[in-house]
């Protein structure tokens, strides 16, 4: 099987702002949205039925659930910026990535640290105006600048689908 290599992938503050909404896991975001909406609806019914204390508490709880989504996104974004400042004393990091047979190896060029993420940990793929984002277990993000991907998007997605099929078959056996 062939591999895909991505070089000089620069992640900076503006790119992090662009992918900020993908920094929390979809299950976490969906759970908070559902809990918030349910609390708001039940709170509204309680207010209409003149159960003011329960209504107010549930409306506040619903607002907190929805607000928590924005708080988590912002805190994760700030955490990543702080990590960049502490590790390399800059607001941009250069990565190289190798999509091989059994996983993605992300190499931080400034710190010379490798992070290997098995394909079985990849959960979601997103496209933004300037980047592609892969979300893995443990809330790990793989951010790929569009101009750094030297293959077409269709070929890259087909490669990931092929890998996913192989992994899925391997897991089933």
Report on this model:
By secondary structure, this protein is α+β, with helices and mostly antiparallel strands. It has one domain (4-172). The protein is 50% helix and 27% strand. The protein has four helices and seven strands; from the N terminus they run βαααββββββα. Strands 1-2-3-4 form a four-stranded antiparallel β-sheet. It has a three-stranded antiparallel β-sheet with strand order 5-6-7, with no helix packed on it. β5 and β6 (131-136) form a beta hairpin. The longest helix is centred in the middle third of the chain and has 37 residues, at 52-88. It is elongated. Mean pLDDT is 85; it is low at 167-173.
Top keywords for this entry?
single chain, 173 residues, elongated, alpha+beta, 3-stranded antiparallel sheet, disordered C terminus, 27% strand
Brief overview:
This protein is α+β, with helices and mostly antiparallel strands and 173 residues long. It is built from four helices and seven strands. Strands 1-2-3-4 form a four-stranded antiparallel sheet. A three-stranded antiparallel sheet has the order 5-6-7, with no helix packed on it.
């Amino acid at each position: 099987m062939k591999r895909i290599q991505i070089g000089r992938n620069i992640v900076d503050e503006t790119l992090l702002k662009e992918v900020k909404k993908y920094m929390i896991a979809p299950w976490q975001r969906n759970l908070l949205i559902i809990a918030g909406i349910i609390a708001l609806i039940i709170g509204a019914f309680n207010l209409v039925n003149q159960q003011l204390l329960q209504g107010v508490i549930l409306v506040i709880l619903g607002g907190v659930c929805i607000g928590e989504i924005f708080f988590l996104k912002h805190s994760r974004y700030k955490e990543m910026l702080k990590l960049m400042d502490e590790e390399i004393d800059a607001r941009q990091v250069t990565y190289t990535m190798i999509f091989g047979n059994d996983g993605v190896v992300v190499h931080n060029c400034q710190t010379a640290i490798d992070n290997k993420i098995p394909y079985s940990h990849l959960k979601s793929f997103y496209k933004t105006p300037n980047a592609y984002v892969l979300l893995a277990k443990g809330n790990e993000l793989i951010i790929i600048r569009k101009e750094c991907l030297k293959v077409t998007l269709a070929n890259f997605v087909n490669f990931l689908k092929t890998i996913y099929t192989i992994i899925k078959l391997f897991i089933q056996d």
